[in-house]
């Protein structure tokens, strides 16, 4: 049992942070009511965390290579635990969003080092088992978040979705300090300079991109603020690429992107998170505000996705030793696409049971994508770049989720506005209130005789948005399946063409 203590320590931290990505989903209506938060504020409660996590991951991966994965992991646990306590005590949307950003920074320290800590703690079959179990926690935890959020919100109030992290975080810190060995330092790593400019440019790129997409539902894509944010994001990305090409110590070695297997892993995790979890926030709002389910029951609707994801991830450690990622990643993305398609076709009369099958299928796909892609990302690069590769992988994972939430907020709100046009005085404002969980407030303000027709109209407008979002997600996942299949086929061909016979006459690939 002592042998698996490092795995337990890493999984505790990982479970805590991935659950916090989605645990707020079913609590959003309660948070909105309690703190008088707008749709934009609710989006930032979700995306503030994911944004900070994504923006910090590349930098933290580089810091971990320099200062040690164990030290950075412990610092991340401490920051995450303290900020969770303050999140639960927040009395205003501004404080909650600020603390969610701090939470995300702490989560970056946990996430960027998890894969490397497991790789350093285990070898061979034990490593495959550890990565499979870690994948189960990473993929299943995100899907279990809504259920946990529903239970805690309904029983104790929304603050407890954050308070619960405190004892878990303390236990993880103690176990890590006792059980996880400190990796041996690499010669020269302490003397390597940090690319501070690169860190700031990437953070500017990610934050501007998310800011522009989050404000688009309210201001419109052609709004001055939206366009300015997206322009800043594009310029920051160009500057970041130029900086990485010129830096002696980049936070992302762009040469890694020329490795088809590494690029395929990044594409797979981005598309999977975007589709599988991007519009889950709005599915949760629909379940509670339009179908009338309380938070716990809304979480139970999403539970099959979590069970499927965790079951597949546990077995993936064994499967990955038999089946090449060349086949597993495209198949997993096809499952995610099929799951999204199965969630289309909602009608005003639909109930939560209508989306269970689609969520289950998507869960199966994500249960395979996370361990397969994470393993491929780390193993396809030189060992000295393991921390950087892990940071890049988790960055794309979080960007996929955060951008998905932001994009689908626009899609659902715009489609709802289209359905409401001609029926209400201010379609845009009503759509914003509706997609923020305010269906009950809208209907109660109407005359009693008109409420039944208005409720049907709101249901129709919301499901139109959800159906469109699911279709867009399915198309992206399908395109990613094709791209990863081609990239991994190219990787296999390149490996075979660069192979050379060894002294025994067998064929051995040339290491790069």
Widest sheet: strand ordering: 1-2
SS elements, strand count:
2
Derived from helix and strand composition plus strand pairing, the structural class reads mainly alpha
Into which percent range does the helicity of residues fall? Answer: over 70%
Written overview of the protein:
The chain is 78% helix and 1% strand. By secondary structure, the chain is mainly alpha-helical. It has a two-stranded antiparallel sheet with strand order 1-2. A hairpin with a 5-residue loop joins strand 1 and strand 2 (507-508). Helix 11 packs parallel to helix 14 (325-342) and helix 15 runs antiparallel to helix 16 (386-420). The longest helix has 47 residues, at 451-497. It is globular. Residues 186-191 and 496-512 have low confidence and may be disordered.
Features:
about 500 residues, single chain, mainly alpha
Summarize the structure.
With 512 residues, the chain is an all-alpha fold. It has 19 helices and 2 strands.
Q: What is the strand and helix layout of this fold?
A:
Layout lengths: L4 H18 L5 H8 L3 H29 L1 H21 L3 H29 L2 H33 L3 H4 L1 H15 L16 H24 L4 H23 L13 H19 L1 H10 L5 H25 L5 H18 L10 H27 L6 H35 L6 H9 L3 H6 L6 H47 L2 E2 L5 E2 L4
Antiparallel strand pairs: 1-2
Helix pairs in contact: 1-5, 1-6, 1-8, 3-4, 3-5, 3-9, 3-16, 4-5, 4-8, 5-6, 5-16, 6-13, 6-15, 9-10, 9-16, 11-14, 11-15, 11-16, 11-19, 13-15, 14-15, 14-19, 15-16, 16-17, 16-19
